[in-house]
Specification:
CATH superfamily of the largest domain: Periplasmic binding protein-like II
Order of helices and strands: HHHEEHHEHEHEEEEHEHEEEH
Helix content: 25-40%
Radius of gyration: 22 Å
Number of strands: 12
Strand order of the largest sheet: 4-3-5-12-6
CATH topology of the largest domain: D-Maltodextrin-Binding Protein, domain 2
Number of domains: 3
CATH class of the largest domain: Alpha Beta
Shape: globular
Number of helices: 10
């Protein structure tokens, strides 16, 4: 039994398909298939069951994956046995793109500035991947929206601030005077993705509850800086969840004054329950304040 085959199984469970697991692991899809055949040979009961075109993990697969994650973490920790002091001075935080822009400066000021030896390591991804990384020990904390129905016994969640998404367009956009979602039908949209629950979801949800056709996502961007640059220089529309994300694009874009409010969602701080929290009360308070709307 090879550890890489266990990693393939964990990736299939996390990403939902052999193709996406192959991309995540940096291997070909046939390599994933062959690895799963080799892994299955060690078990009498099936690890995956086929449903239509998808393979769904069994309870056995989830148990094996959980044990493999624990083994992988212990192996990964071996080179760090002599670097405890260095790790104590580093804060590893996973954030969504919007959280990185709002909370990044606060984390730097609150963690690094008081003690020169400290360092901050930030990584961005969708909230599902970030929470998986937290459980795997890759992060000390995660700042992200809370995925629907997420409730893990090993993870504590504290609400930081609420987000009020607004639709933005360039100031001379033909639709900048639109006052309803209905007037935006047929427009092309840009988004930052993928996202488990966030700006893309709230826009789709706003259309769904009104029984309107889903918005057309023409461009997916890696971050809000590139998204806003596109919006400022094209006829693309976009949802921006916090005014702090506008940055230098603020003079070039305008929020549409729509009659319909987009669904609200919150930013949360996630940490492992059985670990001592790395983010203290003052830094926590500063993160909460960072998300408050500017009067």
């Amino acid at each position: 039994m090879y550890l890489r085959h266990l990693e393939y199984l964990r990736s299939i469970i996390e990403h939902g398909s052999f193709a996406r697991a192959a991309l995540a692991c940096g291997v070909s899809q046939p390599a994933i298939s062959q690895g799963m055949k080799s892994l299955q040979a060690h078990f009498a009961a099936p690890l995956l069951v086929r449903q239509g075109r998808r393979y769904l993990p069994t309870d056995l697969a989830r148990a094996v994956s959980a044990e493999a994650a624990s083994v992988g973490e212990r192996i990964d920790a071996l080179p760090r046995l002599g670097t405890g002091a260095a790790e104590r001075h580093q804060l590893r935080v996973g954030l969504t793109s919007s959280a990185a822009m709002v909370c990044g400066p606060v984390l730097y000021r609150g963690w690094c500035v008081p003690q020169g030896r400290r360092s901050l390591a930030m990584a961005t991804a969708d909230e599902g991947s970030l929470l998986a990384g937290l459980l795997q020990g890759r992060f000390d904390a995660v700042i992200a929206p809370r995925p629907r129905k997420f409730d893990h016994a090993d993870v504590s969640a504290r609400r930081l601030y609420d987000l009020q998404p607004l639709v933005y367009a360039r100031r001379r956009h033909p639709l900048v005077q639109a006052r309803s979602l209905g007037q935006l039908q047929g427009a092309a949209w840009a988004c930052v993705g993928p996202s488990v629950s966030g700006p893309v979801d709230v826009l789709t949800e706003a259309h769904r509850v009104r029984r309107m056709p889903a918005p057309r996502m023409a461009v997916r961007c890696p971050d809000f800086a590139s998204l806003l640059n596109l919006v400022a220089t094209s006829d693309l529309l976009a949802v921006v969840p916090h005014p702090a994300l506008l940055g230098g694009a603020a003079p070039q874009v305008a929020a549409l004054r729509l009659a319909e409010a987009l669904p609200l969602y919150a930013m949360w701080l996630f940490e492992l329950r059985h670990h001592a929290p790395r983010i203290g009360p003052q830094l926590l308070a500063d993160l909460v304040a960072a998300g408050e709307p500017v009067p």
